[in-house]
UniProtKB/TrEMBL annotation:
Protein name stated in the entry: Homoserine dehydrogenase
Similarity comment: Belongs to the homoserine dehydrogenase family.
Reaction equations catalysed: L-homoserine + NAD(+) = L-aspartate 4-semialdehyde + NADH + H(+)
Cross-referenced InterPro entries: ACT-like_dom_sf, ACT_dom, Asp/hSer_DH_NAD-bd, HDH, HDH_cat, HDH_CS, NAD(P)-bd_dom_sf
Residues binding L-homoserine: 190
Keyword Chaperone: no
Pathway(s) per entry: Amino-acid biosynthesis; L-threonine biosynthesis; L-threonine from L-aspartate: step 3/5; Amino-acid biosynthesis; L-methionine biosynthesis via de novo pathway; L-homoserine from L-aspartate: step 3/3
GO biological process: methionine biosynthetic process; threonine biosynthetic process
NCBIfam families given in the database record: PRK06349.1
Domain of life: Bacteria
Cross-referenced Pfam families: ACT (PF01842), Homoserine_dh (PF00742), NAD_binding_3 (PF03447)
Enzyme active site: 205 (proton donor)
Length: 436
């Protein structure tokens, strides 16, 4: 049978890894796909740059249009990143009747609705397994493996760079900036690393996961997003003392009243499996009414783990290339005309527990004044700790862990507490998820 011809846009970390995996495992991949898969062309910015893959059997160009317009290319693999040029190239490829595989979560989260509509019209596939959680087949698992379930929770560590930074800070006390530089050198970070540390990359991924899990349109603009750049080692240590670990989570929850979409640092009981996912590893918990809790674990970034997901998508396209477009797995798991516009909850409607740290003057009666504010808002307290003042400090830290409550109530209590004379500065608020 005729081989499947692939054109790759971008031969950097993921593109180079993809070309390597396709070459190294060619025989095994052919056995799975039923056809040979051949990379015939790739585009880069700089032809003189050293490549991590053998480019001798393919045509290397600086013109990406050559790839998407190449008459022999069946599958265009977009691995340049960014959104504007990537979107134009992907739409051009679709218009030319080519199937597309991409690892670009920003592209899918921001422009996926338009891209999938165009692909549907052309009868081509757009696959994006590598866009979420690197090498973990989380999209396939939710879209296909859990197709019989009503899913109400997806929660996970979905940014490898952020988890690598948090792990190194906690385990080795290394400074934030130094660990970020290492993550960049290892090829984990985005071209703009603020996407990793400010939670934007995780929000892109959560947008995709929520859409597939709940059957809702992609809506990045509705994801509440906090990064890890404001986290202090003090809170990391206090959380540990209280039996928790701080992880940066993406959380999508659905109930009868709507959907919560949020990305933020979160305290998790230290004994949970997900609290022990370290370094660049990712883990995604998905809860379905039939299967119960599932946990999906693996490398969240890096050349070959990501290439593993890209190549799996290429094989999927190769297998379905002869199938009728209407019989293929829908891009967003649900049929395009069956997507539901569920209401998205505002931040004050979020419901979880909270770690709150106040810095207060060390005078009698402060603790009861703080407690009274929580009682006023009908917030139950799980634990209270007062820390000894640090040498040189004339204030003490008081930490409350609340029971599950509405964020609006917590924010009202914080506002009143921060107005008190004996309260020193801005409150540290970190959400707590018990995930049980
Ligand atoms: P790199 O920066 O390592 O590679 C980008 C490649 O695209 C390079 O080969 C570059 O060329 C080429 N390129 C960039 N801009 C242009 C342009 N305007 N025209 C032509 N070629 C261009 O990025 P990554 O491989 O890390 O990431 C690629 C995509 O994969 C991104 O969407 C990223 O979010 C996603 N991703 C990355 C993961 C990772 O672990 N790194 C994991 C999962 C997804 P040149 O080499 O000449 O500079
Ligand atoms: N920068 C991303 C991360 C790459 O660190 O998770 C994988 O999507």
């Amino acid at each position: 049978m005729k081989s499947i011809k692939v054109g790759i846009l971008g031969l950097g970390t993921v593109g180079g890894g993809t070309a390597n995996v396709l070459q190294r495992n060619a025989a095994e991949i052919t056995r799975r796909a039923g056809r040979d898969i051949e990379v015939i062309i790739a585009s880069v910015r700089d032809l003189t740059r050293e490549r991590r893959c053998d480019c001798s059997s393919l045509h290397l160009t600086t013109d990406p249009a050559e790839v998407v317009n190449h008459p022999d290319v069946d599958i265009v693999v977009e691995l340049i990143g960014g959104e504007t040029q990537a979107k134009d190239l992907v739409l051009q490829a679709i218009d030319n009747g080519k199937h597309v595989v991409t690892a670009n979560k920003a592209l899918i989260a921001l422009h996926g609705n338009e891209i999938f509509a165009a692909a549907q019209e052309e009868g081509v596939s757009v696959l994006f397994e590598a866009a979420v959680a690197g090498g973990i087949s989380i999209i396939k698992s939710i879209r296909e493996g859990m197709a019989g379930n009503r899913i109400d929770l997806v929660a996970g560590i979905i940014n490898g760079t952020g988890n690598f930074i948090l792990t190194e800070m906690r385990d080795k006390g290394r400074p934030f900036a130094e660990v970020l530089t290492e993550a960049q050198a290892l090829g984990y970070a985005e071209a703009d690393p603020t996407f990793d540390v400010e939670g934007i990359d995780a929000a892109h991924k959560l947008t995709i996961l929520a859409s597939i899990a709940f059957g809702i349109p992609l809506q990045f603009e509705n994801v509440y997003t906090e990064g890890i750049s404001e986290l202090s080692l003090t809170d990391v240590a206090y959380a540990e003392e209280l039996g928790y670990r701080i992880k940066h989570l993406g959380i999508a929850k659905a109930d009868a009243s709507g959907v919560e979409l949020r990305v933020h640092p979160t305290l998790i009981p230290a004994k949970r499996l997900i609290a022990n996912v370290n370094g660049v590893m990712n883990a995604v918990m998905v809860r379905g009414d039939a299967v119960g809790n599932t946990l999906h674990y693996g490398a969240g970034a890096g050349a070959e783990p990501t290439a593993s997901a890209v190549v799996a998508d290429i094989v999927d396209v190769a297998r379905t290339i002869t199938a009728d477009p209407h019989s293929r797995v829908p891009h967003l798991a649900f049929q395009p005309d069956a997507l539901a516009n569920l209401p998205i909850k505002a931040q004050d409607e979020f419901k979880c527990a909270y770690y709150l740290r106040f810095e207060v003057n060390d005078v009698a009666g402060v603790m009861s004044q703080l407690s009274a504010q929580f009682a006023d808002q009908d917030i139950s307290i799980e634990a209270i700790t007062q820390k000894e003042p640090q040498p040189g400090d004339d204030f003490v830290s008081v930490i409350f862990i609340t029971q599950r409550t509405l964020e609006g109530r917590v924010d009202r209590a914080i506002k009143r507490i921060e107005a008190m004379q004996d309260v020193r500065c801005k409150t540290v608020k970190i959400r707590v998820e018990h995930l049980n």
